[in-house]
Amino acid sequence: MSGRTPSLTPPDDATAPVRHPDAPPAGELLGAHYAHCFGCGDAQPHGLQLQARAAEGVAITAEFTVKPEHQGAPGLAHGGVLATALDETLGSLNWLLRAIAVTGRLETDFVRPVPVDTVLYLEAEVTAVAGRKIYSTAVGRIGGPEGEIAVRADALFIEVKVDHFIDNGRPEEINAAMSDPDQRRRARAFEVNP
Ligand SMILES: CCCCCCCC/C=C\CCCCCCCC(=O)SCCNC(=O)CCNC(=O)[C@H](O)C(C)(C)COP(=O)(O)OP(=O)(O)OC[C@H]1O[C@@H](n2cnc3c(N)ncnc32)[C@H](O)[C@@H]1OP(=O)(O)O
Question: What ipTM describes this predicted complex?
């Protein structure tokens, strides 16, 4: 799927992604990168509460159940919510590289409508890395992990330092995150990345 627009096409000097030696084994749940994250946080009652699991290679699977709070049209998931699920799944991949990265570009295809109560089965993989640029692709299926594709996306994530959040985030939340030992541990795991 990757590379439908020039900025999502890896350059000639791009390399294959390398799974970090400390990446969690295939099958392991990753857990939220931040409890208040709209995509994965368990402290966000109306968030997606998406649970991502490491797969083989630099790949992830994730599941997200569409709730009534996620509607756009009556009884159907909002497209922006589905794009969020793809964004979150693609963002989780960076944990396997031990890279902190933010979404630079996200290109989404909405292939089929997704009704409320549907479980969206997502799978994503990193396809290439070039310097700070991380290229990845994802699909979301309905009816089961092998079901029909309802959504798909290609993305470009850009690696950043922890300072990206400290410098740009609202001080209230940054200070709370920095005084949370679990959050600090997660941030440190990234910073020892060689
Ligand atoms: C202890 C407390 C601390 C807390 C710790 C927290 C740990 C948390 C862990 C993990 C968090 C992950 C959270 C995931 C959440 C889900 C994912 C999201 O939704 S993220 C939110 C949405 N995204 C943004 O808000 C980005 C906003 N944009 C920016 O900040 C900048 O534009 C940024 C950083 C992306 C790039 O800015 P530059 O100044 O660093 O770098 P430049 O030089 O502009 O770009 C680098 C390369 O990338 C290309 N590039 C950048 N943006 C592009 C774009 N949109 N399309 C195509 N190429 C792009 C450029 O052309 C350049 O390429 P060439 O090196 O020249 O080849």
Answer: 0.97
Question: What are 106-145's pLDDT values in tens digits?
Answer: 999 999 999 999 999 999 999 999 999 999 999 999 999 9
Q: What is the pLDDT of residues 25-55, one digit of tens each?
A: 999 999 999 999 999 999 999 899 999 999 9
Q: What is the pTM of this model?
A: 0.95
Identity of the amino acid at 108: T
For residue 105, the ligand 1 atom closest to its alpha carbon is: 55
CA of 161 to the centre of ligand 1 (A): 10
Judge whether 143 lies within some domain: yes
SS3 content of the chain, % helix, strand, coil (to 5): 25, 30, 45
Which domain range does residue 39 map to?
6-160
Q: How many domains does the chain have?
A: 1
What is the domain-level CATH number for residue 10? 3.10.129.10
DSSP 25: P
CA-based R_g, the chain, Å = 16
| Residues within a 6 A CB radius of ligand 1 | 7, 33-34, 39, 87-88, 91, 100, 102-105, 131-133, 156, 158, 160, 162, 165-166, 177-178, 183-184, 187
Determine, yes or no, domain membership for 168.
no
Give 110's contacts (C-beta < 8 A, 6+ positions apart).
Answer: 79, 82, 150, 151
Atom of ligand 1 nearest to the CA of 184: 1
